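In response to the reviewer comment on reproducibility (Comment 2.3), we provide here a single inverse folding case reported in full, input and output, so that an independent group could reproduce the run without further information from us. The structure tokens appear first.
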């Protein structure tokens, strides 16, 4: 088990390193193009690869959601997350953006109460509060002006958490192809509608960057699937926080960014809180639904496959049973 966990951890680190390179491209393109244009072409390039992956879904059924309202809400949340996250990456320092987005596990914990019927006891509540204090340290309200980029990152953390919790609620009953297809198609239609108002002509090298970004998003998802197949979720999930290291390095080397003391302290607090919640959920007596531990990918942007949708059935989180004290 130790060896498989090590392999899983290394694959997890590799996956999130690829995600970090993906985000560097998003930031680079965000200096020239609106988020709507970036997302439109990202979906367009990633869709053929995602279709090939979706063809593996052998579950009998059609494309009609079994939970249409939850599916619709998740789709809206995923689309909003993508637009806001891409905008935040474009206008904020990479490390600061990650520090704010890392609040998503804290919000997942809170949202799991009304949506999943999760019981959150004192220790996890304390971790959530401390983590949110860390976010405030990063934002420094009153000392620095909160820009649209900061608000976009906060919204992305919130809507990304909402999308993840909804998948935790309906993911076992909905076909993987439904969970993948609806957000991607909605993204394509919405971004395509906005595209004429923001479109800027693209040189061939930028077009290639869009294609590379889409390929990296799909590749990172596949590597992360391999990680979760190799190791335990409690080992793999914390690897997402390695992105802050890549953000610091890439920000300094490519964008001439430095991490100020407040951002460093706030990020450390948010990460520590998220790690504590993951470790608490890994104890079977602490969490019935394990909403954070079973969130197997970053906040959704609906331009690449969702990891939990592509894992084998025995690796997917079970639905709360009717006799569970924390079931819906």
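Designed residues, in position order:
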């Amino acid at each position: 088990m130790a060896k498989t966990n090590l392999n899983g951890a290394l694959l997890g680190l590799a996956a999130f390193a690829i995600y970090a390179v993906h985000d560097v491209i998003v930031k680079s393109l965000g200096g020239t193009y609106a988020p709507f244009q970036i997302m439109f072409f990202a979906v367009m390039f990633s869709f053929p690869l995602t279709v090939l992956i979706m063809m593996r879904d052998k579950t009998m059924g059609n494309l009609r959601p079994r939970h249409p309202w939850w599916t619709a809400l998740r789709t809206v949340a995923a689309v909003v997350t993508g637009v806001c996250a891409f905008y935040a990456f474009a206008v904020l320092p990479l490390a600061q953006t990650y520090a704010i987005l890392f609040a998503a596990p804290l919000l997942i914990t809170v949202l799991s109460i009304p949506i999943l019927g999760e019981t959150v006891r004192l220790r996890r509540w304390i971790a959530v509060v401390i983590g949110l204090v860390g976010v405030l340290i990063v934002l420094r309200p009153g000392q620095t002006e909160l820009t649209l980029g900061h608000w976009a990152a906060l919204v992305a953390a919130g809507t990304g958490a909402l999308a993840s919790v909804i998948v935790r609620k309906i993911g076992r009953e909905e076909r993987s192809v439904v969970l993948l297809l609806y957000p991607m198609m909605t993204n394509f239609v919405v971004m395509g509608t906005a595209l004429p108002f923001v479109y800027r002509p693209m040189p061939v090298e930028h077009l290639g960057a869009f294609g590379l970004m889409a390929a990296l998003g799909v590749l990172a998802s596949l590597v992360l699937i391999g990680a979760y197949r190799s190791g335990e979720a409690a080992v793999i999930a914390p690897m997402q926080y390695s992105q802050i290291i890549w953000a610091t390095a890439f920000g300094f080397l490519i964008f001439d960014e430095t991490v100020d003391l407040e951002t460093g302290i706030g990020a450390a607090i948010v990460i520590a809180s998220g790690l504590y919640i993951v470790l608490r959920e890994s104890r079977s007596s602490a969490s019935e639904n394990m909403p954070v531990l079973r969130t197997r990918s970053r906040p959704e942007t609906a331009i690449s496959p969702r990891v939990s949708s592509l894992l084998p059935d025995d690796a997917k989180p079970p639905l709360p049973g009717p006799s569970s004290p924390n079931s819906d």
